[in-house]
Design brief:
9 helices; Cytidine Deaminase, domain 2; single chain; 14 strands; 6-stranded mixed sheet; Ubiquitin-like (UB roll); alpha/beta
């Protein structure tokens, strides 16, 4: 039987409430390292919430440009703890020869944390050098549908409701229907899990999809979305200046402060409006 994935940890805390101090049980979101290997070589270590690790690895390999399609991933397997001690947090990828990195020539490996994403890689020049193309310019999304998406996100966040400590990323189709939602202590990991899910079932590029993320819309989320062909990215908080710059350069629609019946469009406002089909045209 497969071991149960622990997304929650129970702990004892002291709560001060209106002058009264009491002991109580509290839940914490799990955070553990995940090592991604290509063959026997370590490629990345990221702090993540356990669960959907194969999707996370697939999404990471794709959004960081190591593979161009799901077909270049021959296999993704967890390293079984009984084979290698203390290796339960390891995923091993086998790639086609043309996608396998030349580790002897790599200047560095990818080291990530739940707070910073892929540290040191957040540069528009690095993204531009990958020759990523602009997302689907014909896609349109009704603003009346858009304002309803945060409530769907909140209602589906199972672990967040119990801990308040996780980010979420959710993918919606052109009708506003939820396709997939993933939670993680790192928002960039949640996005990689969503994109990895789509990659593993052959749905990338996501040319008619909306990505909604909790928290802010950072540079890495925009970069990963463009790599996956997602035309609209929305967040409930503010985007960063570098995220807006990249979105404008590569013509992605970037939305922030999506709360209630208000949102701010920072880039690509032409996609926010009813499609010709919705207008009856």
């Amino acid at each position: 039987m497969a071991p149960k994935i622990r997304k929650l940890n129970l702990t004892q805390v002291s709560e001060w409430d209106n002058g009264q101090l009491r002991r109580k049980d509290d839940y914490l979101a799990s955070e553990e390292p995940l090592e991604i290997r290509v063959g026997d070589q370590p490629l990345s270590v990221t702090m993540r919430t356990p669960g959907h690790d194969l999707e996370l690895a697939a999404g990471f390999l794709f959004t960081e440009g190591l593979v161009q399609s799901g077909e270049q991933i021959i296999s993704l397997q967890p390293v079984v703890p009984s084979e290698v001690p203390d290796s339960g947090n390891v995923v091993q990828a086998t790639l086609v020869p043309e996608a396998t990195p030349d580790f002897a020539k790599m200047r560095r490996h990818f080291f990530a944390s739940s707070s910073c994403g892929i540290c040191g890689k957040a540069s528009i020049d690095a993204v531009r050098s990958r020759l990523l193309t602009a997302p689907n310019s014909d896609f349109r999304f009704d603003p009346e549908l858009l304002v309803g998406l945060p409530e769907v996100l909140r209602s589906e966040q199972d672990v967040f409701r119990r801990t308040g400590g996780l980010h979420a990323a959710a993918l919606f189709d052109s009708s506003g229907a939820l396709q997939v939602l993933r939670e993680d202590i790192g928002r960039h990991n949640a996005v990689d899990k969503v994109i990895g899910w789509a990659l593993m079932i052959g749905r990338v590029p996501l040319t008619e999809s909306v990505l909604l993320v909790s928290g802010r819309g950072g540079f890495e989320i925009v970069q990963k979305s463009i790599a996956a062909g997602i035309p609209i990215v929305a967040s409930v908080s503010a985007p960063s200046s570098l995220a807006v710059q990249l979105a404008r350069e590569l013509r992605l629609t970037l939305i922030g402060f999506l709360r209630g019946r208000r949102f701010v469009i920072y880039s690509g406002d032409e996609r926010i409006g009813k499609s010709q089909h919705q207008d009856g045209g």
